[in-house]
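Dear all,

This email documents one entry for the complex benchmark we are building for the journal club exercise. For each entry we list the sequence lines for every component of the assembly. Then comes the predicted three-dimensional structure of the complex as a token string, followed by one or two observations. Please use this as the template for your own entries, and keep the labels exactly as they appear.
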Amino acid sequence: MRPTLSQAVARLILLPGLAISIATLVKGYGDAGDGFAAGVIAALTLLVQYVAFGYREAERRIPGLRRLPVAAVAGLARALAVALVPAARGDAILTHWPPPGDSPVRLGTLELVSAVLFDVGVFLVVLGVVTGAVGAIARAAERAGGRA
Amino acid sequence: MIALAVGIPWVAAVALLFLDGRRRWVGWLAVTAAAAGFGTVAALAALVVVDGPREVVAGGWPPGVGIVLRADALGVAFAVLSSGVLLVALAQQVIAGVRSRTFPALVLFLATGLTGLFLTGDVFNFYVFFELSMIAAYVLTTYGGRARQTGGAFIFAVVNLLGSFIFLIAVAAIYHVTGTLEMRAVADQLAVVEPSTVILIAVALFVAFGVKLGLFPFHFWLPVVYAGARPTVAAILGGALANIGSYGVLRFGAGLLPRELELGAVALLVIGGASIVYGSLQAVSRRTAPEVLAYSSIGQVGYVLVALSVGGRAGLAAAVVFALVNSLNKALLFLTVELRGWLVGAAFAVGALSVTGVPPSAGFFGKAALFRAGLDAGDVAVVVLLFLGGALSFVYMFQIYQRDHWRPASATAPGGSSPLAARAIAIGLAMLVIALGVWPEPLISIGEDAASALLGGR
């Protein structure tokens, strides 16, 4: 039996936590924040679900949680692509668009720069690796006869 | 070109994570990618040797702001050797059959980390690539999945995480003292700082790389891990991963902290000498080939340190040549250890001769370069150490040779001889060792180039 209070808190912070992490991700270029910090926030939010509900229930409640390690690999591939595509075009690796000095395309307060694409990759890597590692430990602990 | 050298194995490694590495075609795909990476590094090396160092700054930023990738003679020499050893070890494992899903991807991640590490011009990036290679290596050490491998991997991970941590502290200290992480700027800044401040950083770096190399007082993890791991993994650890230590000692010691290196020359000589004597004596007393080779590794890295303590152009060149030849020997010996059949004994004997330094093997020129450096410096201790180490290595190498290859085949290998392709790889490596002994010009000239790259950094 798991404490009701922590379950209630976990339920309450799930969506706001994810929203804050996404805001940290996309605002990282005008304000404080980046893909790594955003990934950590999102991962911690999901870890609270694991702790409060146990991994079976958490994975039932949040569809796609089990598949997040795949997202880590996809994120790594994406970050690498952003880093290497400029090299294919003859620029130095990790050259970003638009170049320094140009004003980026704006979407409301959002600035569309290719560095965001790179950071989305970083975000997915952090999120996928942390949840994947904790999920694997939970399963291993259950196999070993412990409480999952 | 530099970005491509790091990028090919990296992209391939990520792609292979999605595939099941136990399938034959996936394994060969990984070998192809490793070969492409090796080819790029080799082409880069040819360019560097002909035209001099090349440099790329990420993002087209001015140097000092952006991350710098730099290929000089020292870096490319180690990069070519490491990716070559990884290619050969991966090919041999694929021929024997891969028994783990992620093995090919991990080897490619390791190739990425090592290539990046040897081609970076930035201290922090060095750390990042260093960790990438180490993490891949931790997982690789568990390959085989028995208690022996897992136990070895645990010790390996714990000890080396400690080493990485000490290295990270040293990086932070470098940044604190100099305010930069770009290697050339660091070297310029450190040259004008009081040696009493820098000596602590130098000691921390030395301990970190000493752990990686398995030098005498930091060697305790090495025999368990090398003897416990599968032979291909041991070849990867001894032939590719240990290069981090030699390269680190050379790059950071001779390249960034030359004054501190001179101050510590006696200490290096003592530690190097202790490694040689301890490693060789232990190796003589061991009974199984992997154990003998593990202790022999401890002894062999001692020579690199002794060459560094001699210092100067000749000493550095000798250290580079010896480190390269030593990795090649270790890769050959570990890959040959479990093979049986026609000509395998010969391949093993070539490796053994190369370790002891008998011509016409590449090992002869490693030892000869050391010997000349020692004579030039008029250092009696170095010459005596070389004789002693050489004699002991002769004893232990031929003890294993007798035990493993002179008995009737049925007594040692119940399964008969190994696949022809696996033997062909071992024999090919042995031919390379002999070829480098017969025609040592490229090896010696890259050693000289690397030494001038290190000395020219000041």
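Observations: The CA atoms of residues 87 and 129 of chain A lie 28 Å apart. The interface with chain B takes residues 73, 76-77, 80, 83-84, 87, 91-96 of chain A (CB under 8 Å).
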